[in-house]
């Protein structure tokens, strides 16, 4: 069981200039007294080729951490553009917020960031040298990708479990959310097929029932005709006897 749970991350400036600092208001709960501080990091990911290209924007130690709900604001500078190729400054990147205890990460929250010019002409024909003062970053704050790591809080030196989702998968667009949507689409297709099968099955049942009823009606008619013939024969045979019995009281 995790002793620290991130309850909420409020990005105070989800839309801002590319060079503006990042501001995250973080709320977390601690259910037990910790022996050491918590460490929060903000990491900018502009390439999925290698994690060595990531930029750690800032780190912050929080402690001693009291039990209960805690809140603080984490502010970090924009990435160093001199370390990013010009062709990779625009379009989609990723910002990661990580939380660790005794150098073992137990929570990672990733957000997609879209960097684009706000001017229509510059969007259509971007300048050869990016003009970052006219580039706006938009963080998809409502679509975080949260990955939990299981650590031993008494002995964090033990190796944690592998993450559910890698940063490379996020950069490639293979996020959990998108996979879930695909699964939902598959489920919808299966439901539609099942509904079609049910309709076909109902139609087959209706046809079968109609045939059975028709056969039963024919059988009933045949039985009724046979019973009528039997009754006619009995009436012919029993006629005189019946008349004799009915005449006996008058004798």
Structure description:
This protein is of the alpha+beta class and about 250 residues long. It contains three helices and ten strands; from the N terminus they run E-E-E-E-E-E-E-E-H-E-E-H-H. The chain has helices spanning about 120-125, 165-170, 175-245, and strands at about 5-10, 15, 20-30, 40-45, 55-60, 70-75, 90-100, 105-115, 135-140, 145-150. The strands form two sheets. Strands 2, 4, 5, 7, 8, 9 and 10 form a seven-stranded antiparallel beta sheet that branches. A three-stranded antiparallel beta sheet has the order 1-3-6, with no helix packed on it. A hairpin with a 2-residue loop joins strand 7 (about 90-100) and strand 8. The radius of gyration is 39 Å and the shape is elongated. The chain starts with a strand and ends with a helix.
Give the topology:
Blueprint: E1 4-11, E2 15-17, E3 22-30, E4 38-45, E5 55-62, E6 68-76, E7 91-101, E8 104-117, H1 120-124, E9 135-139, E10 145-148, H2 167-171, H3 176-247
Antiparallel strand pairs: 1-3, 2-9, 3-6, 4-5, 4-7, 7-8, 8-9, 8-10
């Amino acid at each position: 069981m995790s002793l620290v749970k991130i309850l909420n991350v409020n990005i105070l400036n989800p839309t801002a200039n590319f060079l503006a600092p990042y501001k995250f208001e973080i709320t977390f709960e601690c259910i037990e007294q910790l022996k050491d501080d918590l460490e929060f990091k903000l990491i900018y990911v502009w390439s999925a080729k290698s994690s060595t290209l990531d930029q750690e924007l800032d780190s912050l130690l929080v402690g001693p951490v009291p039990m209960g709900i805690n809140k603080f604001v984490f502010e970090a500078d924009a990435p160093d553009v001199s370390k990013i190729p010009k062709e990779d400054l625009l379009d989609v990147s990723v910002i990661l917020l990580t939380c660790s205890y005794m150098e073992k990460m137990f929570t990672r929250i990733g957000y997609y960031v879209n960097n684009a010019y706000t001017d229509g002409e510059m969007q259509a024909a971007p300048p050869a040298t990016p003009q970052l003062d006219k580039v706006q970053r938009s963080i998809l704050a409502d679509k975080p990708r949260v990955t939990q790591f299981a650590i031993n809080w008494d002995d964090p030196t033990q190796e944690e479990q592998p993450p559910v989702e890698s940063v490379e998968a996020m950069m490639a667009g293979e996020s959990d959310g998108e996979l879930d949507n695909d699964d939902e689409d598959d489920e919808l297709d299966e439901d539609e097929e099942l509904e079609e099968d049910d309709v076909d099955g109902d139609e087959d049942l209706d046809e079968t029932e109609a045939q059975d009823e028709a056969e039963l009606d024919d059988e009933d008619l045949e039985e009724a005709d046979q019973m009528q013939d039997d009754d006619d024969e009995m009436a012919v045979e029993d006629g005189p006897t019946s008349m004799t019995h009915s005449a006996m009281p008058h004798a």
